[in-house]
Amino acid sequence: MYVILVNDMKQQRVNRMLKLCRRYLHWIQNSVFEGEISEVKLMALLTKARAIMHEDEDSTILFKSRTQQWLEKQVVGCERSPLDTIL
Amino acid sequence: MYVILVNDMKQQRVNRMLKLCRRYLHWIQNSVFEGEISEVKLMALLTKARAIMHEDEDSTILFKSRTQQWLEKQVVGCERSPLDTIL
């Protein structure tokens, strides 16, 4: 399954969430991740994410698609993703 | 067409971009928008967005799908969207 994950976290939890999400998905922008992931791994990611999040203050939105082919991606402005390999 | 739009803007341009995107799409989180939009309206939105953006500093990512049915959305934590009608 292909997912897009977007986080909206309080500043003090951003880095922990970033590290977690990068273990499972590709970081493409600020707090946006994408990638192929299995149902089992996604459940693991969400369990760990919930342990970091304060559910009354933080928010994560997932968009799931059966295949990446159903989504066309377009980037306007600067590409962040090349940083992914450096950080 | 159904789109997900994610902005990563410098602080001083966030509000202008927010106002622009809300004229075309539903605001669902921090800098994330979604909605049905025609090709023509999307072109208009992107033209106006480029006029606001500094393309070396800001970034907008669009995910386009022929239909919303191909995407399943899941929200973890707090829902931001109820604010949309208030702000």
At a glance:
With about 90 residues, chain A is an alpha+beta fold. Helix content of chain A is about 30%, strand content about 35%.
Description:
Two copies of one chain form a homodimer. Chain A is built from two helices and five strands. The first copy, chain A, has 87 residues and is α+β, with helices and mostly antiparallel strands. Chain A has a four-stranded antiparallel sheet, covered by helices on one side. The longest helix of chain A is centred in the middle third of the chain and has 14 residues, at 39-52. The A-B interface holds A 4, 6, 8, 28-32, 46, 49-50, 53-66, 70-80 and B 4, 6, 8, 28-32, 46, 49-50, 53-66, 70-80.
Beta-strand content of chain A: 25-35%
- The helix-strand sequence of chain A is EHEEHEE
The proportion of residues forming helix of chain A, as a percent range, comes to 25-40%
Describe the global form of chain A. Answer: globular
